[in-house]
């Protein structure tokens, strides 16, 4: 490469970095950028100038999301969380089981490679990209299988962030109904929290608690996956940040002095969530979308739509 060409490449990289950092900083100002808009801005960057730090994307979203969830714990009461957990437990277990079974059958019908199909079903059933990241080393997937599953789930997450609040408002769902519905039917914790936060504070508290309860199912499903695929993969990683979330709730419930700093923790959490969604959007590159292909995306869409409709019907009937 000639010196002139190298200068052009360096200049273009600098421009991409400046654009990325500028918008990322703007996303940290809640009054200017909402979570759905942050996600949309990220997708625009991915499709135009490109993500300058793509190799750090997964780690960054992992840290940001976990820190944000723990921060949200400081805005919740343990008694209400336990009540929500009891309320949503049976629905969560029912739809998780149904999603895994129906996802398996749908993958067979569409003739999708087994591990890719299983990852999409797991991501839909439990907690999106986090579940896929936890299960993939257990069943020893290839990089392409992982990319296809993540691309499918992240694309549907982006849609959910806009669709769910609109449907909730159109059907005049209560805060309780929307919180439980979004926790059951939306894949990633980031999009669940983003959609519920847009709908209302009570929906946010209910959705976060119910969703984290759903995330704990990663552990038994990982052992099931190891058995089904006959693998001796690495040990299952326990999502310890859920424990920190519970500690934050306990502190908020039983230490009165924490209330003086509650708004700081929750503001940090909501800002972190907005930034998380921006970074996730930046990861939805054109290459990733092309790699997905039609069949895996079709499996993800059909599975998600059916679960969303059935869980909505259950929430309307029982609550």
Automatic annotation (TrEMBL):
Key words, A-Z: Cell membrane, Membrane, Transmembrane, Transmembrane helix
Record bears the keyword Amino-acid biosynthesis: no
Record field: transmembrane: 20-48, 60-76, 88-106, 118-139, 146-167, 212-229, 238-255, 261-285, 297-318
Top-level taxon of origin: Bacteria
Compartmental location: Cell membrane
Pfam (any one): Cons_hypoth698
This protein's record includes keyword Cell membrane: yes
Membrane topology field: Multi-pass membrane protein
Family the entry assigns: Belongs to the UPF0324 family.
UniProt-listed PANTHER family: INNER MEMBRANE PROTEIN YEIH-RELATED, UPF0324 MEMBRANE PROTEIN FN0533
Protein name stated in the entry: YeiH family protein
Taxonomic lineage: Bacteria, Pseudomonadati, Bacteroidota, Sphingobacteriia, Sphingobacteriales
């Amino acid at each position: 490469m000639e010196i002139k060409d190298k200068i052009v490449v360096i200049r273009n990289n600098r421009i991409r970095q400046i654009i990325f950092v500028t918008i990322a900083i703007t996303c940290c100002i809640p009054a200017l950028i909402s979570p759905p808009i942050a996600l949309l801005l990220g997708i625009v960057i991915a499709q135009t100038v490109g993500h300058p730090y793509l190799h750090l994307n997964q780690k960054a979203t992992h840290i940001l999301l976990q820190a944000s969830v723990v921060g949200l714990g400081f805005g919740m009461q343990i008694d209400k969380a336990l009540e929500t957990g009891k309320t949503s437990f049976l629905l969560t277990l029912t739809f998780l089981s149904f999603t895994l079974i129906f996802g398996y059958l749908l993958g067979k019908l569409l003739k999708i490679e087994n591990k890719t199909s299983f990852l999409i079903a797991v991501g839909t059933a439990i907690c999106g990209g986090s579940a896929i990241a936890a299960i993939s080393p257990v069943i020893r997937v290839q990089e392409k299988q992982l990319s296809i599953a993540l691309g499918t789930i992240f694309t549907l997450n982006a849609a959910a962030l806009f669709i769910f609040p609109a449907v909730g408002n159109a059907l005049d769902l209560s805060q309780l109904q929307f919180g439980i519905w979004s926790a059951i039917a939306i894949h990633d914790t980031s999009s669940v929290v983003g959609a519920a936060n847009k709908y209302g504070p009570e929906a946010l508290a209910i959705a976060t608690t119910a969703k984290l309860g759903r995330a704990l199912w990663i552990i038994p499903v990982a052992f099931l996956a190891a058995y089904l695929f006959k693998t001796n993969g690495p040990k299952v990683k326990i999502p310890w940040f859920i424990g920190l979330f519970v500690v934050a709730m306990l502190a908020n419930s039983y230490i009165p002095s924490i209330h003086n700093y509650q708004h700081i923790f929750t503001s940090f959490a909501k800002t972190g969530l907005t930034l998380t969604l921006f970074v996730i959007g930046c990861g939805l590159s054109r290459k990733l979308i092309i790699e997905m292909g039609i069949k895996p995306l079709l499996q993800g869409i059909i599975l998600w739509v059916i679960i969303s409709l059935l869980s909505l019907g259950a929430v309307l009937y029982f609550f």
